[in-house]
Specification:
Elements (H helix, E strand, L loop, with lengths): L13 H6 L10 E8 L5 E3 L7 E3 L1 H13 L4 E7 L11 H14 L4 E6 L21 H18 L3 E4 L6 H11 L12 E2 L6 H7 L18 H13 L4 E5 L8 H8 L2 E5 L2 H12 L5 H14 L5 E2 L16
Parallel strand pairs: 1-3, 1-4, 1-10, 4-5, 5-6, 7-8, 8-9, 9-10
Antiparallel strand pairs: 2-3
């Protein structure tokens, strides 16, 4: 009897599987987070985030040097200032980190800067509050815009707003344009859920909310309509790149967002997802690097153009090609 389709025929050898590979990517598609901490001495490993530490400026510079050697091309900086405030924030620490990295490595790398207020505010929320702890949106947008311009002026290549305040992309885009940074792209955390997978990050960034939660501004995981609309809105406001976050729990949204916006959509493999794999491996229940690779393949298969992952710096060592 004739066997019209044997799916296993093309799975038989490595070379046949490679021929059919639909998700090929290089280290240039991965973005490595960096936590630069004001007032810290040296570097301190972050619980669960294997291979990642909170670092002072010197250590950050050294780490980026090693990462460049390992083929990392994109970084996203999470600045953790020592002093926290309520309404007006000082960006000198962040600007200093950006300009030091720029001075050291020139254009060898692309530096995105996370733009949010939660590491700057006493209360750990991503906004400025007015009376009765109501979100003061105009004041929040003004502070976000002011920080975006400060980061661009210090040498950031791209601005990455993660606060989920309505209208932030438009406000930031306008401020950048008016300040002579019309060519600085905005990579928006456009579909960002109120998630339980941000734990290790909040410890690293000292950004856990001191009261309540973020459900009044981040998206409810039950809602697909809001999730897609949030990215559509960012695109209309001028975001150049879009993102879903957490990546794995938003996997179903990448394709519809691409289709609705005609923008490239990335996935953020957040701290809890990455740490989950690390902890499985620590208990001997999986091979960390292979599990990591599998998740990246899935992000690419689902249509993610880029992946923000705490494992970007291990990518070359586990077989991902470096762009030449
Ligand atoms: C800041 C921000 C968060 C993350 C990225 N930017 C935390 C949050 O929204 O609470 C999470 C990233 C991660 O968990 O890896 N708003």
């Amino acid at each position: 009897m004739m066997d019209v389709q044997r799916l296993m025929r093309l799975r038989r050898t490595q070379q046949l599987r490679d021929l059919c590979d639909e998700i090929e990517f290089t280290t240039s598609h991965l973005i490595q987070p960096l936590f630069a901490v004001d007032g810290l001495q040296g570097s301190v490993p972050i619980t669960g985030l294997t291979g990642n530490s909170r670092m002072d400026v010197e250590s950050t510079i050294r780490q980026v040097g090693a990462d460049l050697e390992a083929g990392v091309r994109h970084f996203i900086l999470f600045p953790v200032p020592a002093t926290k405030g309520k309404k007006k924030f000082d960006h000198s620490f962040t600007s200093g980190v950006i300009s030091s990295l720029r001075k050291e490595y020139g254009s060898a790398f692309t530096l995105w800067v996370d733009t949010c207020l939660c590491s700057y505010t006493e209360h750990g929320h991503c906004c400025v509050f007015g009376d009765g702890n109501a979100i003061d949106l105009p004041a929040t947008l003004e502070e976000l815009s002011r920080s975006a311009v400060a980061f661009a002026a210090a040498g950031a290549d791209g601005i990455s707003p993660s606060d989920m305040m309505d209208g932030r992309v438009a406000a930031i885009r306008q401020a950048l344009d008016e300040s002579g940074f019309g060519m600085t792209p905005v990579m928006s955390y456009s579909t960002k859920f109120a998630s339980n997978f941000y734990g290790p990050f909040r410890e690293a960034a000292a950004s856990a909310p001191q009261f309540g939660d973020r459900k009044a501004y981040q998206i409810d995981p039950r809602n697909r309509t809001d999730a897609i609309q949030a990215s559509v809105r960012c695109a209309l406001e001028g975001a150049d790149l879009l993102m879903v976050k957490p990546g794995m729990t938003s996997i179903d949204l990448i394709q519809p967002i691409r289709e609705r916006t005609d923008r490239a959509v990335g996935a953020y493999q957040v701290s809890g997802e990455y740490a989950g794999l690390a902890l499985l491996a620590e208990k001997g229940l999986t091979d960390f690097d292979r599990a990591l690779l599998e998740t990246w393949y899935v992000f690419r298969r689902a249509g993610a153009q880029f992946i923000i992952t705490y494992g970007a710096r291990r990518a070359a060592s586990i077989g991902i090609k470096v762009q030449r």
